[in-house]
Write a structure and sequence with these properties.
By secondary structure, the chain is an alpha+beta fold. It folds into 2 domains: about 400 residues, Creatine Kinase, Chain A, domain 2; about 70 residues, no CATH class. The strands form 6 sheets. It has a 6-stranded antiparallel beta sheet. Strands 3-16-17-18 form a 4-stranded mixed beta sheet, with helices on one face. A hairpin with a 5-residue loop joins strand 4 and strand 5.
Length: about 500
């Protein structure tokens, strides 16, 4: 039986400074996160010990597989909802807490948008007159640079990585028909607006490899980073770098939910008879992104040519059989799994009939409708800079400026739940223990990371509390202990008594 698909979303946000276009993005990102840390969340040091970003799942570890060098001017803080907020080189990044269900992944990703909006407001007070920091939830600056929206899924270490690659690659290449955020034009060399006026995804132009360790150069469809942030003898973390940042809650839900379900099927052998192998995965990724009618056929090995829709239907049909046989415990909820299948089928059926039916559901369709309407009303060429500006404005996090906010997108999580998720952690993963400790013992938390907390009890040595199982540290496990522990010393004593 597959293990629970604990999941989360890491979003690198685009950033600019109105009134100071020459400001270094590292500086503006640091101002933004520092403002939130100082005025709203306070600052907690991130513990880099034990991190191994260069460890490769194929067994080809880099010779430089050491914890990353800390750039002291860059900001890291951990929030009471269990998330991490920090500066990742030239971008502000929000990494959601570990979530037990795809719906919670959407909820805490949306909470990240609120966090960044509050950070913009907090930073404004320290900006010179006429200047303001603006944040965008997108993936491309239009100048040949891209930044990621990464997903993470807990997997069974016993599942061979080569098997994961074999069955997840066609799924990743084809899922962009509902996960794409849409983009005016292309940044691939030699492709102007006459060739690619609009495409499904912001990320397809930037992928060059089928499998690999990199995330910023020679980006691979399947990333091999082997850094589980958990007990490495039992778990692996599949680090997914190929998705777009979504403003549609339904697109996010489908992105995380269908991927988690496919990974569960891989673990349980439910795809062992799937004979879809793409002949040219990287080329196919781009071809599908450029085909707005979704009729683009890509070559397979032994099965001729297939469309992305045909590929997705085959995964869906196996998912239905898998759900009937195994259920959806891997997704955290039988009801949520059943509803995911209903939505997956609904979306594929609508895409087959007419994608524009989904202008209230999928980002790329909503954006295409907005951009096309403006272009036709004003008689503009696809290369007109006004259309690129509209594209960017779709992703603007300022509610009064955001075109996504005006697109009539369907919602999945209530706004009041999103507001709570800004400060309150999920109750059913170890993020609960992390978040509650930061809320209750903030002054005694010396540092934190995904799999441990370090406490300062007022005398040496510091005390590290490991959290190597993402399914422990839940409200069920620790609520009673937290309630009766008035100090961190009492908490540590209680943890020691529980073994």
């Amino acid at each position: 039986m597959s293990i629970p698909k604990i999941c989360g979303i890491e979003t690198e946000y685009g950033i600019s400074v109105v009134g100071a276009a020459d400001m270094n993005p590292i500086t503006s990102s640091s101002i933004l996160i520092n403002a939130y840390a100082n005025e709203v969340a306070e600052r907690t040091r991130w513990d880099f010990d034990g991190e191994t970003p260069q460890r490769d799942a194929r067994g080809m570890d880099s010779l430089v597989s050491f914890p990353p060098e800390v750039e002291t001017h860059l900001v890291n803080t951990v929030l009471t909802n269990g998330a991490r907020l920090y500066v990742d080189h030239a971008h502000p990044e929000y990494a959601s807490p570990e979530c037990r269900t795809p719906r919670d992944a959407v909820l805490f990703d949306r909470a990240g948008e609120i966090v960044l909006r509050r950070a913009m407001a907090a930073a404004q007070g320290g900006m010179p007159r006429g200047q303001s920091i603006v944040v965008y939830k997108n993936n491309s600056d239009g100048k040949g640079n891209t930044y990621g929206c990464h997903e993470n899924y807990l997997m069974d270490r016993a599942t061979p990585f080569v098997k994961i690659v074999r069955y997840i690659t066609p799924f990743f290449v084809s899922r962009q028909i509902f996960t794409g955020a849409g983009k005016v034009g292309s940044e691939a060399p030699g492709l102007d607006h006459s060739v690619v006026p609009f495409q499904l995804t912001q990320r397809a132009d930037f992928f060059e490899e089928e499998v690999g360790l990199e995330t910023t150069l020679k980006r691979p469809i399947v990333n091999t980073r082997d850094e589980p942030h958990a007990d490495a003898s039992r778990y692996r973390r599949l680090h997914v770098i190929i998705g777009d940042a979504n403003l549609s809650e339904y697109a996010s839900f489908l992105k995380v939910g269908t991927t988690a379900l496919v990974l569960a099927m891989i673990e349980d052998g439910a795809l062992d008879d799937l004979d879809i192998v793409l002949a040219t995965p990287v080329r196919s990724l781009r071809q599908i992104s450029y085909g707005l009618d979704l009729k683009t056929e890509v070559p397979t090995v032994g099965r001729g040519e297939m469309t992305a829709l045909q590929i997705q239907w085959e995964y869906f049909e196996r998912a239905v059989k898998y759900g009937d046989r195994e259920g959806f415990e891997a997704l955290g909820s039988e009801d949520q799994g059943a509803w995911l299948l209903e939505e997956w089928e609904r979306i594929l059926s609508a895409l087959e009939r007419d994608p524009m039916e989904l202008a209230d559901t999928l980002d790329w369709v909503a954006k295409l409708q907005i951009v096309s309407g403006y272009r036709e009303r004003h008689g503009l060429a696809w290369s007109d800079s006004k259309l690129a500006a509209i594209d960017l404005q779709y992703h603007d996090l300022r509610p009064e400026k955001s075109l996504a906010a005006r697109a009539g997108l369907r919602t999945l999580v209530p706004e009041e739940a999103v507001i709570r998720a800004v400060t309150e952690p999920p109750t059913d993963t170890r993020a609960y223990f992390r978040g509650r400790c930061l809320e209750k013992y903030r002054d005694s938390v010396a540092a934190a990371n995904w799999d441990s907390l370090i406490f300062d009890v007022g005398s040496d040595p510091l005390r590290r509390v490991p959290m190597m199982d993402p399914l422990r540290g839940t409200a069920h496990h620790v609520d009673t202990l937290l309630e009766r522990s008035g100090s961190v010393v009492e908490l540590l004593r209680g943890l020691g008594a529980e073994g």
